[in-house]
Amino acid sequence: MTTILLVVGILVFLIIVHELGHFAVAKFFKVKVEEFGVGYPPRALLLGTWGGTKYTLNWLPFGGFVRLYGEQGEGETRPGRTSGKFTDAPRFAQALILVAGVAMNALAAWFLFTGALMMGVPQVVEPHLAGENARLIVSQVLPSSPAAGAGLIAGDEIIGLRDVESGAEAALTPDSVTAFVSERGGRQIELTYERGGRSAVAYVYPAHSVVQSAAERPAIGVGLVIMEHTPLPFAQALREAGGRTIYAFELVGRGLSEIGRGIVGGNRNVLDEVVGPVGLVGIVGDASKHGIGSILSLAAFISVNLVIINLLPIPALDGGRLVLLGVESAMRRSAPRTVAQLLNALGVAFIIVLMVTVTYQDIARLLS
What cofactors are annotated for this protein (predicted)? Predict the structure, then answer.
């Protein structure tokens, strides 16, 4: 239950941050904001009305919206900034209003990464720089290796390694473990590890030809790194968070590009990698086991996802509305109201179908 509330809290926070961007810039350009909604209609609850804006909670928890007066062409046209109508605002003002949401999410990602680094997130360190809270982590497991056969996976923490016959134990550094294993070809090794807060024991037999580049050396087929929670001072965290934010954009962008190419190529299996709010429960649950820093980092990645997804040229999303605004600017006239409403309805329908599909996949994964 705590994890579910955490997921809801992260999503609601990021949605509010996004919509606050639209809201603030619309107010700056004196465009009337009729409704500030968390979730998509139908409406569940009217929280109140302040400054002429209705604040609502809605039943479909897949996003949020700011409803601007006149954005669908309704209302009396009175060109000028004082009319309060979105379509009467200058084109550059309309574009800034549309971009403000994703800009706020990008800033949120930067500050969330900053907070994560200040709290301390797991980072790979050199053994000679490791402190008291350093941990030996499995970074990879080779297929068909003794470690894979014993059930080890990337992310497991090695907390003990013992020769069953002699009782000798290995020092917990990558080099020490490698040397310890290579001296015990064919002998049983007791490996104690921790996963998800629970410890377990596996028994492995080092074998030859596990690592192709060193086939003559007995190995169990794991890559190991030293990881440590290292809190950073604010200035350094802010600087490094900028780099992490840029990297997150590159990573998410590549992922969405691969999904897009897969869909165009007829490979429907690429959608299996997409998760929705239900799937986030498991991911956030895993992150919560590694502390607040990991939760903040995950929230930052989700915020980056929201930026890129919202910039896709899909009607009803910011990217689609920016494309329509660009077309209108090129044609020097607004699209007919019926066209704008139809495109918006199609976009909303597409989003709902996509989210229902993703949620179905999430539930199917849980059941399987």
Answer: Zn(2+)
